[in-house]
Amino acid sequence: MQLIIWGFVSLHFGKNQPELSASGILISVVLVWDSLFRSHVSYTLSFLEEMWSRNLGNLFVAPLRPWELMLALSSISMIRTLIGMIPAALLAIPFFGVSVFEMGFPLLAFFFNLVFTGWAIAQVVTGILIRYGLGAESLTWVIPFMIAPVSCIYYPLSTLPPWLQDIAQLIPTSYVFEGMRALLLEGQWRGDLLQKAFLLNCFYFSCGLCVFLFAFRSARKHGLLLQTGE
Amino acid sequence: MNVVLKTDQLSKDFGSTRAVDDLSIELNRGTITALLGGNGAGKTTTLSMLLGLLLPTAGKITTFGYDFVKDRYPALGRMNFSSPYVDLPQRLTVRENLTVYAKLYGLKNIKNTVLEMVETFRLEDFIDRRVRKLSAGQKTRLSLAKALINNPELLLLDEPTASLDPVTVAWIREFLQKYQVERKATILLASHDMKEVEQLCENVLLLSRGKLVEEGSPQDLLKKYDRKTLEEVFLDVSGRKEN
């Protein structure tokens, strides 16, 4: 749906203001941004499914360590993200004449950075879910949208007011999209931006891991693992 | 090693409420023990701590000789549990659920093990049916199949026959007795059903307000309180403690 909506917006801009949709930038950023949203949502939904079915008690009395669960959720998330994204990216070629695959290797770098951010957010959200229960379920949908404005998906970082630019520079996704614009509009590969995104992602991923493990321990302390569920 | 599970002065506080108070128990290999108590006596809290789902406030749990509070993973593969308070994924079929848990417990020859469990628990006709479409009795049998998939040496059961029809109840009791004898398994059973306890268990732990207030075989307790049924003993002890 995102692809269709933004595809037509892009066609409209292409006719009236060609500079806004040059090099298929709008469609490309929409597709790539979707990798963050999908990776986060599929990770969190897989965890929520265990909560909805009241299965956490069974899982955690099995010799399953929290990091093994996280690895499993990440793997499922990657599979679901690819299943959702590859057909959309392929459809964009005949329908809108835009191929994100033309970016080559940098596409992989953009994709993995955004997936990495998605997992970092998902770890925090699943940590909150395990600690506070299904009342916090709406965070699954809200958080990616909260970081969207400072991710500078559709506009350059310089568009933001200075104080918001400072915040955006703490968000790895802003570097990914700045890097994508540099590649698509100027043909320039900005490894420095991707490196910053990667380092920030490592930091947030570690924080997410700590939040989840802390929440898991807290849930064990308060006896919440048997109580979660609908 | 005859003692499979041992707790030393195990306690759990929730805020200012002490849910389990200085509980010291031992479960020997090849025995079925009942954990009895009224609502809020601390049965589920105790089971949760013994399963590693809940961290104790104080005390020690030793399972298969391992310090369970510090590192529960070496023991978890040798134990299992079933409870009406947890469920299996509703969207998966009987076969898929058992396969997932067989993998989680690191079993080999998964296909055959799953078929064996399905046959044992008379789930053949529903093997490819989603859990959400099973009846309460079928779900309980599946939950027990999951609990026995790793052939556990220690089995913790929370109200295994709650809200089931008499035929299923009788079948489950018979099965547990057989399993205990054949596997020399240790079973801890939290139940409200005194008849079940009298029939199945050689040892009874009676909790009241988180404390162990009575312990012994059903016969010893009947003798001690000069009662004909365990239910009367339970009412005597609970009444005494409440007053």
Written account of the structure:
The complex is a heterodimer of chains A (230) and B (243). With 230 residues, chain A is mostly helical. Chain A has one domain (40-80, 102-222). Chain A is built from nine helices and no strands. Chain A has helices at residues 2-16, 25-52, 56-61, 66-96, 105-132, 139-151, 162-168, 172-186, 191-222. In chain A, helix 5 crosses helix 6 (139-151). The longest helix of chain A is centred in the last third of the chain and has 32 residues, at 191-222. Chain A is elongated and about 60 Å long. Chain A starts with a helix and ends in an 8-residue tail after the last helix. In chain B, the strands form two sheets. Chain B has a six-stranded mixed β-sheet with strand order 6-7-8-3-9-10, with helices on both faces. The N and C termini of chain B lie far apart (40 Å). With 243 residues, chain B is α/β, with parallel strands linked by helices. Chain B has helices at residues 43-51, 73-76, 94-104, 110-120, 136-148, 166-183, 194-200, 218-225, 230-242, and strands at residues 3-14, 17-28, 32-36, 58-63, 66-67, 79-82, 154-158, 186-190, 203-208, 211-216. In chain B, helix 3 (94-104) packs across helix 4. The model of chain B has no long low-confidence stretch (mean pLDDT 91). Chain B folds into two domains: 3-78 and 153-242, 3-Layer(aba) Sandwich (Rossmann fold), CATH 3.40.50.300; 86-151, no CATH class. At the A-B interface, helix 3 and helix 9 of A face helix 1 and strand 6 of B.
Topology, element by element:
The complex is a heterodimer of chains A (230) and B (243).
Chain A: H1 2-16, H2 25-52, H3 56-61, H4 66-96, H5 105-132, H6 139-151, H7 162-168, H8 172-186, H9 191-222
Helix pairs in contact in A: 1-2, 1-4, 2-4, 2-5, 5-6, 5-8, 5-9, 8-9
Chain B: E1 3-14, E2 17-28, E3 32-36, H1 43-51, E4 58-63, E5 66-67, H2 73-76, E6 79-82, H3 94-104, H4 110-120, H5 136-148, E7 154-158, H6 166-183, E8 186-190, H7 194-200, E9 203-208, E10 211-216, H8 218-225, H9 230-242
